[in-house]
Amino acid sequence: MIENLNGIRETVNYRKDTRLRLYNNVQIEDYPDHWHTPVEIIMPIENIYSVVVGGHTITLNPTDIIFICPGVIHSLKAHGKGRRIIFQAEITMFTAIREFESILSLMSPVLKITKENPHDIHKHICNLLLQINEEYNNSNILMETIIYSKLLNIFVLVGRNYTSNSVFFNGLD
Q: Which of 8, 26, 38, 63 would disulfide-bridge 88, Cβ 3.0–4.6 Å?
């Protein structure tokens, strides 16, 4: 999965003519400490998966979702066979939106969302990620535009539903 690693900096190989990369990852492979400029969203589909940030291990069960903010050093650990969606997207164009930086700060350094989160946010984000996965793999016209609109919708859901530390687990508490 990590194709270009210079020290601990990963240069993401985006899909041609986009600033997006999505893996339907099935490798039984761990990935060392690294960081990158795109946001990374991981959702295991089968089996557990772990993300290590700042010495803290965050275990993801199937359909748990984790957001890893740009520039955050992290490593990934597979626990045997499994399948997971790993989505990376450059989000610099969102910084022109006044509220976006506030939303990103709510997610920093990582944000884990599970079925236990209130207001069905998990269900909505899970559905949007599955739609992004389908759109990415079907290469329809305006694929990048549709994916970014869904990603922006995900950020809006996070921003609107973040009401207290009990709602979200940032993985480092």
A: 38
Residue 93 and residue 144 in contact, taking contact as beta carbons nearer than 8 Å: no
Amino acid 164: pLDDT: 45
Q: From the DSSP assignment, how many helices (H) and strands (E) are in the chain?
A: 3, 11
pTM given for the model? 0.92
Residues with pLDDT less than 50, the chain:
163-169, 173
d(CA 165, CA 153): 21
Q: Which uninterrupted H or E stretch holds 10?
A: strand 9-10
The helix or strand, by DSSP H or E, that contains position 120, with its residue range, turns out to be none
> Quick count: other Cβ atoms within 10 Å of Cβ 96?
7
Q: Give the three-class secondary structure for 57.
A: strand
3-class SS at 122?
helix
Q: Say if residue 15 is exposed, middle or buried (CB neighbours under 10 Å; 0-12, 13-18, 19+).
A: middle
